[in-house]
Amino acid sequence: MIFSLFRKDPRRVAIATLYERIATASRNPGLYAALGIPDTLEGRFESLSLHMVLSLRALRELPPPADDVAKDLTDAFFRDMDASLREMGVGDTVVPKRMKKVAASFYGRAQAYDPALNGGNEAGLAEALGRNALGGDAPATALARYALAADKGLKTVTLDTLLEAGPAFPSPEAFTEERSR
Predict the structure, then answer these.
(1) Residue 7: inside a domain
(2) What is the pLDDT of residue 92?
(3) What is d(CA 79, CA 20) in angstroms, rounded to the nearest whole number?
């Protein structure tokens, strides 16, 4: 009985691996250098949020048990955010308030990006990404093209492929303003 506490749960390992692959993709230097996401704490949250939204959208289109994977992946994301706040020295009494803000920000981004991604609306997505990911009024056209391409590519992946190889995101450098024209 006690030894079962030390066994690795294969499902938990698969979710942790999937989340790590998404987080790693969100830290691709090209997102910051080529596509203009600020290399700050906020910028890294924006990049991770965008990659999570894209991955969760892909899972939403797949048959069961993809819905369970999406729930577990979302839980892993929020556990990571909670741990990050604690590592930064946020006190135990303040963490729940900050987590509510993190959740509101994440779900707000998902609601802002979904309609534009659903309709392939590059201009609408560029506006939302410019406001959120780049923190300004200028549209993030190159980042929107990257997100639309990633969304399209992720829609062709099976659940088994997602869990085994992780999501494949395009190279950010392929979407720089000069190359996009």
Answers:
(1) no
(2) 82
(3) 13
How many helical (H) and strand (E) elements, i.e. helices and strands, does the chain have?
9, 0
Q: What is the pLDDT of residues 25-73, one digit of tens each?
A: 999 999 999 999 999 999 999 999 999 999 999 999 999 999 999 999 9
Amino acid in position 84:
S
- Does 65 fall in a domain? yes
- Residue range(s) defining the domain that contains residue 73: 13-180
Residue 6 inside a domain? The answer is no
The number of distinct structural domains making up the chain is 1
Q: 23: closest CA among 61, 93, 108, 80?
A: 80
What is the residue whose two structure tokens read 């980042």? 143
Q: State pTM to two decimals.
A: 0.92
Distance CA 111, CA 35 (A): 22
